[in-house]
């Protein structure tokens, strides 16, 4: 971690130099505004600001005082993370430092909170890690279990781009227990990326033997042997005991390094995890608080499997037929749109997809069966999604005097805030009912927004699946 203060003219007037300091209360600078984070592949990229820059979720959370840093003028922090050994170095520069009423923020503890054991304070020592750690990933994965491998041949241009070298690229997925020393150390070095890129994440317990890590790795080899190996991403999975003699796989963290995102590596990790669940006959697979994008990828993976699963096809066709022929806008008309309990169990037992995920996919399976040019059919489908969304919020057996959707104040987003209120028999609800009636339009608009979002998710997945299966 290097700290550099800009030099001032020693012959300048001391009084003028004092004016450079803070003349009023220091308002500070947000961490998000003065910190940049770069992923670097070699020592030549360290200190170069056109290296690959990542977009972290929120750096302010690692600093006190509402994420602000105090006591520095023109503070600039560039953090360089090595993709070779996953060590980190922070280059810190500022013009001057002074207590402007809020003290001077100690940057070292805050940066250690982000970077942990990965932080190397001396720049020269950090630069040496690129050569010393050139085989780090290959050494760590050498004791792992290879679950998947596929090789392709490509052309790699040299730095001067004058000649091409033929090599073999092999993508592997390797399973390892996190509680081994070398794997635990690797995960600890990956924690900064987890904290910076996975919203709401926290480090796993590397001493717990039930944690497993699945590494997506790319190795390159030519006629002389392996040129190198690099980590593309990973998934951290916890194996829960399920009575009496089974287990459940919970996917806790999935992270593909930003330079390699959008190339199918996360998709591959999920497919391999599904294969593990089937081969080891676990009870089911769940995902802990998935991001919107991870949920999207997961749904796409599961949709392909469900579309080829014969036992549920008749039930899907039955719902689709009723949507084509019926009219859900009429009050007496009711459609049993949920999958039969037998289908839910068949999917869990044969595909290891849990019920909650299956219900998400079920709506898309129905959508794919419909004639999208039939306005009546699509109006029925939207009514179905609206009813299901309302039921998810209020429950399926909601009466007029039972659960109520009540708008409440909120410091973050007042318009989108509501709670479900269940009055007991001895509670007076006249005022609540009056307010509920007054806010009916607001609640309906909120419901409409939720339905619009869900319809967008459904159509995006359906279009992607349809293109893949053409």
From TrEMBL:
Predominant localisation class: cytoplasm
Recorded superkingdom: Eukaryota
UniProt entry keywords in alphabetical sequence: Acyltransferase, Cytoplasm, Nucleus, Transferase
Cross-referenced CDD domains: NAT_SF
SUPFAM superfamilies, per the entry: Acyl-CoA N-acyltransferases (Nat)
E.C. no: 2.3.1.48
Subcellular location: Cytoplasm; Nucleus
GO molecular function per UniProt: histone acetyltransferase activity
UniProt lineage: Eukaryota, Viridiplantae, Streptophyta, Embryophyta, Tracheophyta
Signal sequence, start to end: none
Pfam families assigned to the protein according to its UniProt record, in alphabetical order: Acetyltransf_1, Hat1_N
Any one GO CC term of the record: nucleus
Family: Belongs to the HAT1 family.
Span of domain N-acetyltransferase: 229-283
Protein name as catalogued: histone acetyltransferase
GO BP, one annotated term: subtelomeric heterochromatin formation
Catalysed reaction equations from the record: L-lysyl-[protein] + acetyl-CoA = N(6)-acetyl-L-lysyl-[protein] + CoA + H(+)
Domain spans labelled Histone acetyl transferase HAT1 N-terminal: 29-199
